[in-house]
Every structure is written in C-alpha cells, then in structure tokens.
C-alpha cells in the first residue's frame, strides 16, 4: 500500500499549494490485488489515491484527518448494535482453543493469592507473637514472647516453616499463572490476527477503499495488541476476584466472627461490586473515540512519511506538523476521561483497603489476642488485592473492548462480491492446472472471449457514475487496447473484469458465462491484472515472483523474466534472482537492492506470466518504460503466449499498434474505433 500512502500525502500537499491543479493518478497494486481506484469523471489534485473522485469539496481534506462530513458517520456501526456481553461472547467464541489454558491460569492465580494471604497472615502472627506473646485479654492466660506460660499459640518455628512454604507456593503458582496467561494471550493474538485477516482478504480491495489504510493497519496491529490484555490481565483476575472474595468473606465470618469482620466485609463488597464500574461507561465511550483518533494519527504519519518528497517539495512540512499536533491534542483530550476514572477508582480502593484493615483492628481490639488480630488484619489487607485487580483490569478493559468493537466492525464489513458456483478453467484440456508456464505448454493456454454488455458502475458514496453503458467484445485470444486520459474510467473497467466490484447494471461474460458464476479464487487465478504501480514485499526477486506461483522452478522464473524483458538486468544484480528487494527503510525508501519504476513494472508482469492466466489485464504496465522497450515486450508476450486474451489500457496511442480491438474511454463512456 506504499503507493496509496504516498499518493494520499501528495494529494494533500498539492491541494494545499495548488487548489486548481489536477491529474493525480490512482495507485493500484499488481497481481496481489492491493488495488486503488481511479477518479470518476474529472481527475482532481486533492483526490487521495485509492478513492473515487466525486468532485466534492471534501476531496481537499488533509490526509489523516477525521472526515466529519461523511454521511455514513450517522449510521450505527455493526459493533454498536452489540451489547458488551455479546461482544465478549464474540471474542471468546473466536478463541475457544485457549479456554483450557485460561482456566489453568485462573486456578494458578487463585492458589497464588491464597498463598499470599496466608504468608502475610502467618508473618504478622509470628512477628507480634515473637514480641509480645499470645495473651487472652479476658483470662490473662497465654504465652510470653519467650514461649513460656499457659497458652499454646506462642511463637513457633513451625510458623516460620509455614511462611517459607507459602512463599514457595506463591512464587511457583505466580510463575505458572504468568506462563499460562501469556501463552493464552499470544495464542489469542495469533487466532485473532488470523481471523481478522481471513475476513479481510476475501473483501479486498473494496474493504481497503472503504476503510483508510492506516485505520486497517492500526486494527491489525495495535487493536489486536490491546485485546491481548483482555486475555492476559483481565479474564483470570475478574473470575478469581468475583469467586474468591465472597468465599473468603464467608469463611472469615464463620471462623473469626461476623462482628470483627463486618466493616472489612462491607469495604470489600463495595470495592468488589461498585468501585470498578465508576466512570466505566463514560471512559469506554471516550476510549472508542481515542482509538479512532489514534487511527487518524497513524494514517497521518504514514501518509506523511510515504509522501515526504511531495510534502517538502510543496513546502508543507509545517502544515503537516500542525495537523499532526491537532490530532495529538484530540488523542490527549479523549484519553483524559479514562485516566481520571482509573485514578478515581484506584484512590477509592486505597481508602477502602485502609478502612477495612482499621475496622478489623478497632473491632477486634480487647477481644482477640494481639498476634491473631495482626494476622487477621494483614489477611484482610491482602484480600483487597482481589478487588484491586478488578480495578486494574477495568482500567485496561475499556481499551480492550473498544479495540474489539473496531475489529468487529472491520471483520463484519460486507463483501463487495461473493463466490459463484463454478470453477473457471477447472478440468479443461486447454488450461492445465499446473501453475507455471513452460515452453511446451504455452500453446495450450487459450484465453476466453470477453463480452461487456451495457455496463454501468458507480462507486459507493459517489454522486456520479464512473462507467456508463459500456459495451465491448474481445475475441478469444485477442488483444484489446483502451485509450483515454487519466481519470476517464479505464482502470475501473479492468477492476470490474477481475471482479473487485460488481456493476449495478449490465454484465461481463467470459465465453458467454457471467463473471458472477465463477468462484473468486478461480477467476483471479485465471484473470490477472498488472498495474502501473506495484508493491514489492520484503524478500528476494524469486520470492516476489513466486507469490502467485509458489511451485515455479528456476527455469520457469527465468523464462518469465525473458518474456518481461528483465532477465538481462537481473543477471547483472549481485545475487541474481536471490537479490533482496522491497525492504523499506526511512521515508519508505528500500534498504534492499533498489529497483527502478520500470524494473518493478516488468517484475510484476513476469509474476503475472508465471501464474499462467487465460486473461491478462495490463493497466499502464509500461508507463515507466521507453517506447522501444515497451514495443519489444509486447512482441515477446505475443510470441510466447499467442493464445492469451489481453486487455490493455493506456494513454499512449502507440499502444494500439497490432491490437484486434481499439476503443477510447472518455468520462466513463467507451467508443470502439477499430475492430
């Protein structure tokens, strides 16, 4: 999505410097479908890459800023229709594999807390007994500090042994709790990221167009990380606190007397049932706004970094910095309610903890031996760690739930297209299922005829159609060239051919079968687009070429590079096809071997050839090449794959040479000029 990021910041800078300037082009990925959309009707300089141009003033909105004019903002999101209980049910339903280890973590936590309470109670008892002994206030009988007297509850080394045993148990089960809790958390991260990505992938690229790329990035990274806290530091503390605290109160009241523990019990119950929910709803709403503002900040920073050259060229660095400061102020403003509520709850819990402990000392003074009273007071003091853990979990729970709502919204984003019942090309003798191309199989590739019938299309939210009443016939194995200026709708037509979207009117057929009849996987395996701009992933040239054909052999890779006119240049690189490319350093610049724009385009073409498609869509695929090299590649492609059906869009008239069909696109209307 680098091209999208860069174009977005570029558009923002140009809109600020030249309100009337035009001709930004839409970025689109190549074979991997990370596509952006061209402008509809007239191109506009303020139009961010990847969005249809509706010619509305909102197009000049700076990248990274929240769009308050968006009509859909008033509509409730899918997650807003869920209660908190339903949202937690959705989360736990996805992560069922971690429920067993999560239960073990909760049990370890319970044992660890009980050992902690016992250790402090025994320590308090031993300390006081060693100093003053144990004397019954009513009878005067008891033991002295040296262990003599009539009582049997004085200082004993067995108590010291008990303290040591409790300390060992606490340490052991603390470790086991942390180990199992973090296993659960990291396993849940894996499950959630896989789940959300599996939901996003079939909806691409439409979901990338409807959502800001920075927003999706924030959801897949930071939002998932925030949900990790729900599993590592929320579920087990809540479960143990709500089960163990009432049990301790009941056991303590029965064994020690309700009169002594009355005040402590009231303080514990208030801390358990009331304090955690003070300000929770308001902080949850504020946190949802906070995460949205942070997503805007991520978008703004990403756009600025990838568009740094344009920002500096148009002298807009100070303006972009001010925009970033404003979003940062929004982040701080939305963070205050949650921080205030958390501080309030922590302060009240501290007061209740002190009050409960003091009440035990006050009510037990004169009626309970001093060592027993000290043990009881320290046990009550340590018991407040249970409701305090709820307060700490609640402080992180609002962020986890807000992040979960954002993930739910993205994962439930409706798909622009759905699978059809048929496999395109499956089981045909003309199109073997082996993935890479080879010389002896090249003649077996036979492309289908393409028929576009009365097609019209409008992007969601746009006021004007991008394409109107398009009719086109491309013969089987033929080559069609569509000429037109940037923003006329050429790329959109290619995106409909690969079924990124479905038209609202008309249809597209391959050999008489509508595209909607084919599964998306088989369609996009056989109909492959090569874009003007392409994303390289960090890895070697061979790794990037094998994205669409993982089983491709070295010989097949070199053959594809020969057809794309890149083999000679790759041979001169340091490690040939094992040369690393695509790694991004500062300002989005590659830290691996730097490929030129023309080399990246030819690499994308070679990648598409390796997939052995039946239809090849070329979107300004040679815009960075000189005319001679462009013509040479077309000739090599026609010679190597003569049966391939090709649809090419270009603004260069010379691209039409030798085409079976030539058409011109102007403002969404197509006129066939030669067939």
UniProtKB/TrEMBL annotation:
Sequence ranges assigned to domain ABC transporter in this UniProt record: 450-674
Lineage per the UniProt record: Bacteria, Bacillati, Actinomycetota, Actinomycetes, Actinomycetales
Transmembrane residue ranges: 113-135, 155-173, 229-254, 260-280, 351-381
Record-level GO cellular component terms: plasma membrane
GO MF term set: ABC-type oligopeptide transporter activity; ATP binding; ATP hydrolysis activity
UniProt protein name: Cysteine ABC transporter permease/ATP-binding protein CydC
Species this chain originates from: Actinobaculum suis
PROSITE patterns, sorted: ABC_TM1F, ABC_TRANSPORTER_2
Entry superkingdom: Bacteria
Biased composition (Low complexity): 7-69
Membrane topology type: Multi-pass membrane protein
């Amino acid at each position: 999505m680098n091209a999208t990021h860069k174009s977005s910041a570029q558009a923002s800078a140009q809109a600020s410097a030249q309100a009337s300037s035009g001709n930004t082009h839409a970025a689109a990925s190549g074979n991997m479908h990370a596509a952006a959309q061209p402008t509809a009707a007239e191109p506009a300089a303020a139009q961010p890459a990847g969005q249809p141009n509706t010619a509305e003033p909102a197009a000049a909105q700076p990248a990274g800023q929240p769009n308050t004019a968006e009509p859909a903002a008033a509509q409730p999101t899918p997650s807003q229709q869920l209660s908190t209980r339903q949202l937690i049910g959705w989360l736990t339903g996805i992560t069922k594999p971690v429920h067993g280890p999560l239960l073990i973590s909760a049990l370890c936590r319970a044992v660890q807390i009980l050992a902690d309470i016992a250790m402090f109670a025994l320590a308090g008892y031993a300390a006081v007994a060693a100093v003053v002994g144990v004397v019954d206030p009513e009878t005067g009988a008891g033991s002295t500090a040296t262990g003599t007297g009539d009582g049997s509850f004085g200082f004993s080394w067995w108590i010291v042994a008990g303290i040591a045993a409790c300390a060992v148990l606490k340490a052991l089960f603390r470790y086991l709790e942390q180990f199992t809790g973090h296993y659960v958390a990291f396993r849940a991260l894996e499950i959630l990221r896989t789940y959300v990505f599996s939901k996003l992938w079939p909806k691409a690229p439409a979901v990338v167009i409807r959502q800001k790329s920075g927003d999706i990035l924030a959801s897949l990274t930071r939002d998932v990380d925030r949900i990790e806290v729900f599993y590592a530091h929320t579920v087990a503390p809540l479960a143990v606190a709500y089960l163990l605290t009432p049990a301790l109160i009941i056991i303590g009241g029965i064994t020690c007397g309700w009169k002594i523990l009355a005040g402590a019990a009231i303080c514990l119950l208030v801390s358990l049932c009331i304090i955690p929910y003070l300000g929770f709803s308001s902080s949850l709403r504020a946190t949802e706004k906070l995460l949205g503002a942070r997503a805007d900040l991520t978008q703004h920073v990403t756009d600025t970094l990838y568009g740094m050259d344009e920002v500096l060229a148009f002298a807009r660095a100070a303006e972009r910095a001010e925009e970033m400061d404003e979003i940062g102020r929004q982040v701080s403003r939305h963070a205050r309610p949650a921080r205030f509520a958390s501080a309030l709850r922590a302060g009240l819990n501290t007061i209740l903890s002190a009050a409960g402990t003091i009440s035990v000392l006050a009510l037990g003074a004169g009626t309970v031996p001093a060592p027993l009273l000290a043990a009881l007071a320290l046990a009550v003091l340590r018991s407040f760690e249970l409701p305090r853990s709820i307060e700490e979990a609640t402080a992180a729970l609002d962020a986890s739930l807000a992040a979960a709502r954002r993930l739910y919204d993205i994962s439930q984003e409706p798909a622009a297209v759905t699978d059809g019942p048929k496999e395109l090309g499956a089981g045909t003798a003309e199109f073997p299922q082996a993935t890479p191309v080879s010389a002896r199989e090249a003649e077996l590739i036979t492309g289908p005829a393409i028929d576009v019938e009365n097609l019209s299309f409008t992007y969601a939210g746009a006021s004007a159609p991008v394409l109107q009443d398009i009719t086109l016939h491309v013969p089987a194995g033929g080559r069609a060239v569509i000429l037109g200026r940037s923003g006329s709708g050429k790329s959109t037509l290619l995106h409909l051919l690969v079924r990124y979207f479905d038209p609202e009117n008309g249809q597209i057929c391959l050999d008489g079968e509508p595209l909607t009849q084919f599964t998306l996987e088989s369609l996009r395996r056989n109909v492959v687009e090569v874009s003007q701009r392409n994303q390289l992933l960090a890895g070697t040239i061979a790794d990037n070429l094998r994205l669409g054909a993982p089983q491709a052999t070295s010989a097949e890779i070199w053959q594809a590079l020969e057809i794309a006119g890149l083999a000679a240049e790759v041979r001169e690189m340091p490690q040939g096809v094992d040369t690393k490319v695509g790694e991004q350093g500062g300002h989005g610049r590659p830290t691996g071997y730097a490929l030129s724009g023309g080399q990246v385009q030819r690499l994308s073409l070679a990648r598409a050839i390796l997939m052995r498609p039946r239809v090849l869509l070329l979107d300004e695929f040679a815009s960075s090449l000189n005319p001679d090299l462009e013509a040479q590649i077309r000739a090599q492609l026609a010679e190597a794959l003569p049966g391939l059906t090709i649809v090419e869009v270009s603004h260069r008239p010379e691209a039409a040479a030798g085409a079976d069909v030539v058409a011109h696109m102007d403002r969404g209307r197509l006129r066939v000029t030669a067939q």
